[in-house]
Design a protein that fits this description.
74% helix; G protein-coupled receptor activity; olfaction; 3-stranded mixed beta sheet; Olfactory receptor; globular; mainly alpha
Length: 318
C-alpha cells in the first residue's frame, strides 16, 4: 500500500541551480515584466482618460490589458524574488492559489480574445449593423462572461488539484505552479476529476480557436475586397500581428496541457509556459499601441496635457 505524505509546500526547480544563471533569469524576467507592466498600464490609462476611445473595441482592449497585467503578475514577480533570494519554496495554499489565478486569467483571456474577434468581424464585415449589435450593455455582458468563465475554470482546476494525493515529492520543475508539473509529482495513476476538467477546457479552447479562425477568415476575405491599398495594409498590419500572438498563445497552452505526465522534464516543458504567460502580456501592448493611430494620438494628448499641467506654454515644446 502506498504511503501518502501530507505535502505542505512545493519547491520550484526553475531553469538552473547555478546562482549566476538564476541572477540572469531574474534580470530577464524583470525586464520582461517591466515592459509588460508599462505597456499594459499605459493602454489602460489612455483608454480610461480619452473619451474618443470609449468604444467597444477599446473597451475590450482595456479589459485585455488588465488581464495581461494580472496574468504576468501572478507568476513572474514571485519567480524573480525566488531567483534573487535563492529560495524556491511556496506553500501548498500559495501554490493552489497561484494555479487558480493563472487558470482564471488564461481562460478569461482566451474568451475575451474570442469576443474581440467577433467585435472585429462585426465592425469590418457588418459595419452598418455595428452600433446595433455591439451596444454598451452587450459589451459589458460579454466581458463579464469572460471573467466569470475564467473564474469557473480556475476553481474547477484548483479543486481538482487539491483532491490529488501526493507521495512526498515536492519538486516542481517549473517557475510557477501549473497543472502538468503538479501531475508529475502526484502518486495517483488516475486523475479522473482533473482529466475531465482538462478535457472540458480543451474542448472549449478548440471551439474558441475555430471561431476565431472563422472570424478572421471572413475579416481577411472582406479586407481583400477593399479597393484602396492603404486600407488593406492598415487592416493587415493590425490583424496579422495580433493573430500571430493569439495563435502562439493558444498553441502553447494546448501543447502544454495535452502532454502526458512524464518523469523526465525537457527544456520545452519549461519554455512553453513562458509563451502563454509572459509573451502575450508583453507583445499585446506593442501591437495595439505602436501600430494604432488612435492610441498614438491619445498618447500625444496625454503628453501635451502633462506639459500644460506644469505651467508650460506651447512655445516651450521642442
Amino acid at each position: 500500500m502506498t504511503n501518502f505524505t501530507m505535502v505542505t509546500g512545493f519547491l520550484w526547480m526553475g531553469f538552473s541551480n547555478t546562482s549566476e544563471l538564476q541572477v540572469l533569469h531574474a534580470i530577464f524576467f524583470l525586464l520582461t515584466y517591466l515592459v509588460a507592466l508599462k505597456g499594459n498600464m499605459l493602454i489602460f490609462t489612455l483608454i480610461s482618460l480619452d473619451g474618443k476611445l470609449h468604444t467597444p473595441m477599446y473597451f475590450f482592449l482595456k479589459n485585455l490589458s488588465f488581464l495581461d497585467l494580472c496574468l504576468i503578475s501572478t507568476t513572474v514577480p514571485k519567480s524573480i524574488a525566488n531567483s534573487l533570494s535563492h529560495s524556491c519554496y511556496i506553500s501548498f495554499l500559495g501554490g493552489v492559489s497561484q494555479l487558480f489565478l493563472m487558470v482564471l486569467f488564461v481562460a478569461s483571456e482566451l474568451y475575451l480574445l474570442t469576443v474581440m474577434s467577433y467585435d472585429r468581424f462585426v465592425a469590418i464585415c457588418q459595419p452598418l449593423h455595428y452600433e446595433l449589435i455591439m451596444t454598451t450593455g452587450d459589451c459589458v455582458k460579454m466581458a463579464a462572461a469572460s471573467w466569470l468563465s475564467g473564474a469557473l475554470f480556475g476553481a474547477l482546476y484548483s479543486v481538482s488539484i487539491i483532491t490529488l494525493p501526493f507521495c512526498g515529492s515536492k519538486d516542481i520543475h517549473q517557475f510557477f505552479c501549473d497543472v502538468p508539473p503538479l501531475l508529475r509529482i502526484s502518486c495517483s495513476q488516475t486523475h479522473l476529476v482533473l482529466a475531465v476538467s482538462v478535457a472540458f477546457g480543451i474542448g472549449i479552447g478548440l471551439f474558441c480557436s475555430i471561431y476565431i479562425t472563422i472570424s478572421y477568415s471572413h475579416i481577411f476575405s472582406t479586407v481583400l475586397k477593399i479597393p484602396a491599398r492603404e486600407g488593406r495594409s492598415k487592416a493587415f498590419s493590425t490583424c496579422l500581428p495580433h493573430l500571430i500572438v493569439l495563435m502562439v498563445f493558444i498553441t502553447t497552452v494546448f501543447i502544454a496541457y495535452l502532454q502526458s505526465p512524464q518523469e523526465s522534464v525537457s527544456l520545452l516543458d519549461l519554455l512553453l509556459p513562458m509563451l502563454y504567460t509572459a509573451v502575450p502580456s508583453t507583445m499585446n501592448p506593442i501591437i495595439y499601441s505602436l501600430r494604432n493611430k488612435d492610441m498614438k494620438t491619445a498618447l500625444m494628448k496625454l503628453i501635451a496635457w502633462k506639459y500644460f499641467s506644469k505651467g508650460l506654454t506651447p512655445k516651450s515644446f521642442p
